[in-house]
Amino acid sequence: MTEIFDDLKAEYEQLDAVLAELTADQWAHPSAAAGWTVSDVVLHLTQSEELVAASIAGDELIRPPGDVDAVADALVAAQRDIAPAALLARWRAAAFATPGALRARPKGARLSWVATSLSPATLATTRLAEHWAHAHDITDPLGIAYPDTARLRHIAWLGHRTLPYAFEVEGIEGGPVHCELTAPDGDLWRLGDPAAASAITGAAADFCRVGARRLSPADSALKATGPYAAQALTVLRNYAL
What we know:
This protein is α+β, with helices and mostly antiparallel strands. Helix content is 52%, strand content 10%. A four-stranded mixed sheet has the order 4-3-5-6.
């Protein structure tokens, strides 16, 4: 996972190249995130990235009471009058400081993240996953290309790694699931014990979109076999909480 910090920076750079070219009308355009404009999505990414900086600084992050989406909506609503140029500068300042700051944390460090603590590499992975998902919330409605890359392997790893937690949270019986996912460049990524009785096969891009709740399992081309694979796709999430 040591390359995650470089890949996180690369993901930020890919999104930055898109944001730098947006017109005023595009900033105000509805995103694929319900109720949010493109500007709102970038503000949310900025606010959450500033929480990363607070965690790195040693602050303990306390999850506010209430539904996570409602809390995020309230935070965005409180600051959504910021102009696009100022918002972009604020996001850049927060985002591009993150990879180096996480890389610099000592071996074995744990960082506060809402209701748990994460290693710097895992926190970097959650940031990559969130920026990738929201990048598509921005670009898809605008018809802007945002190609999938080999960086999806980090997101797929996170989704698979957190399956036991996802089963527990949803109150669904689960078990080991092996994944064989085809990368954007055609490579095959294997996750989990190949001897597991349950398996998910198909495109890594579909797997990551299902985990980001941007694609329903039924609308994907993923194949689920065994006692737990289909349930795994219903609970799959590309985030640690």
